[in-house]
């Protein structure tokens, strides 16, 4: 069964303000529980107990737990206004480091604020659930297109090889950022040779180079 729209419940009835609040509560509670419980282990009773409601009420709005997680995931956007503005701003050889670090930090801030849901969505997508694949694609499309535009501009100006496929390059940058977000806590706390600060800096270097502005060593003669 397809997801009910935000205006309709599972019976096709128009939701009033109380119904919208109840649906919102179920989504928010599910997201909170996903911080400690994997999606495959989360049960309707867990959600209804935490939301102080009943299973009967749950099924007015959703068929199952997957649909709640999907509805929550559809609200995610990795293409935030802040990161799009950074990508679309003017990049130069002089400011490419700062721009790239700013881009990384905007991305990581959003990931950190939505860590549990982002992890849940991406795992479901990686396992081949087409519904989660589609909501992820919707989330990343504006950011991918902004990066593609930046890379194509660099190609026209001779700063990036024409052999580079812009969509693949943008996708690779996004893949890197997603893994950095997913592993931020690992690199920040493992006390190993590789630190999170080093990974953040490496990501910035990669992004700047992808946009045709490789970061220069200030100490170079």
Automatic annotation (TrEMBL):
UniProt keywords, alphabetically: DNA-binding, Transcription, Transcription regulation
Domain HTH tetR-type: 20-80
Pfam families (alphabetical): TetR_C_38
DNA-binding region(s) in UniProt: 43-62
Coiled coil location: none
Region span, Disordered: 1-21
Protein name, UniProt field: TetR family transcriptional regulator
Species assigned in the record: Sphingomonas immobilis
